Amino acid sequence: MIIHNSSSNGSPNHKLLIGFQAPWNVSFPFSAQRLGSAIQIAVEKVNKNRSFLGNYSLDIVYKDTNCNPKVSLGGFIQQVLRENITALFGPACPEEAEVTGLIASAWNIPMIGFVGQSSKLEDSEMYDSYIKIMPPLKGSSEVLVKTLEFFGWRHVAMIGGGLNTNTWEKVDALWKTVENHLRTNFKLTTELNFDTSNPDLLYQNIKHISTVARVIVVITNREDSMALLLEAERQGLMNGDYVFFLMQQFEDNWWKSALNSRVSQDVTRAFGMTFVIGQKSYEGHEYYDFFKQVFQRLKGHPFWSNLTSESEVSPYSVYLHDAVLLYVLGLKEILKEGKDPHDGRQLLERLKTREKIRFQ
User: Fold this and answer.
1) 173, 175, 260, 348: most buried by Cβ count inside 10 Å?
2) 214 close to 238: Cβ distance less than 8 angstroms
3) Are 23 and 66 in contact (CB under 8 A)?
């Protein structure tokens, strides 16, 4: 699907297509229905201001990948061979990015990540046309390690929602990253990954984990996190003898809302002995305005999203928007030098050699 954007001042220009891959399913935090308009907003900024790319303008080719590596790879091949895209934004899911990133590197097409990915993509020789605007996932696990070391806690357990129930690509990348750091530095007493919708399993696994560790790391989606913490509260684990670390990709607002609403004393007690570790989301008036704009645009073509408020807009939308502007900075230099805009390594080299890049 091609998402058309207005060109600069209606003047004749050269059109370049960029690829965009993200799942359509709104249950994913990086669903196109929760962030897709961010790439439209960024592209329209570029197209309306000729100081960016002069006589060139951008259009977007979108592919719903449903977090399926085979679909992502097939979609990318079509985007390159049929649409002749100059860059790919995404794919959003780690397993897709690992696969599609290899052919992007082989074909020298720049692939720009706007979601935290697996550690495999940090191999700059294998993925030499890949660049990401997100901080690495290992940052959160390094904070966890430093915190555990500070308190002198050596025995740790991991618990999370089952692979079939998670909505963020099985939360696989963050789980593996944290697991590797814990195995290296601590005694990892147990790892439990199960379907939290089964009340018997939920009860039994919380009961078991309380016997093998007093420091418990929780890695899963928001629904499973709440179920786990509430069950721990019911079993009396929030009385000061246990500590829970809730690991997130972002410092999501759902737990703040749960606490602030005060609708349930159980929820308040469930967070009584819980640390939340996650990357800080953007904040401030300019970002609230941006999320509002993304929310309003998502209601229209081509996403027709049924989100009910700005709070449901994905925090990844800011990174997607800024990834486009970052790419355009490199593209501008490539075009100014008369070089091929499809040359991913040349473009990334222009970005890497700049001492400092700042933009709002």
Assistant:
1) 173
2) no
3) yes
